[in-house]
Design brief:
About 25% of the residues lie in helices and about 35% in strands. It has an eight-stranded mixed beta sheet. The chain has a single domain, classed as Gcn5-related N-acetyltransferase (GNAT) (Aminopeptidase), CATH 3.40.630.30. It is built from four helices and eight strands, in the order ββααβββαβαββ.
């Protein structure tokens, strides 16, 4: 088990631990909140419990973040490509809107860098970071990621406007 704990400046207890089946409903709620917002994930229709379980099962590695014992986020990690591209990881992160501002995204990002290295990955690549998600972009850049490409108007926001998608990369 890979765990991490920290205290934020406001003295909240944040922990990261391995995903367990009992975490499914909490992660589904967070996932669907993000899907409904329409500004980060490509999915348009909320997930069912079965779809969320299948999504998580498609990743060999999954972690959850807790804030004072309540699940408020998580991430999944896998190879970005099979075969000759399998040394580059890909990850997806979730943070509940009510838990933002406590450093959870930063902790998840840092944890994933350590975990990816531990698993033998040589880099991490994000294939679709929405250009309007400026907080995420700033965080990833702070953690050493660079925008290596931009797909013009490749993402349709929830309000039907189009935004660019960035491909971000970081060597480990």
């Amino acid at each position: 088990m890979n765990e991490g704990t920290a205290r934020s400046s406001t003295e909240f207890r944040i922990s990261i631990r391995d995903y367990q089946a009992a975490d499914l409903e909490a992660l589904l709620e967070i996932m669907n909140e993000i899907i409904q917002r329409g500004d980060a994930f490509v999915y348009e229709i909320p997930f069912t419990l079965k779809q969320m379980a299948e999504y998580l099962d498609s990743y060999p590695t999954a972690f959850v973040a807790t804030l004072d014992g309540r699940i408020v986020g998580g991430y999944v990690l896998r190879a970005n490509q099979p075969g000759r591209g399998s040394h580059v990881a890909n990850a997806t992160y979730l943070v509940a809107s009510h838990a933002r501002g406590h450093g959870i995204g930063n902790m998840l990002g840092q944890h994933s860098l350590v975990e990816a290295r531990r698993q033998g990955f040589k880099a991490i690549q994000f294939n679709a970071v929405v250009s309007t998600n400026t907080n995420a972009i700033k965080l990833w850049q702070k953690l050493g990621f660079k925008i290596i490409g931009t797909l013009p108007r490749a993402f349709r926001l929830g309000d039907r406007r189009h935004a660019d998608l960035h491909i971000m990369h970081r060597l480990l």
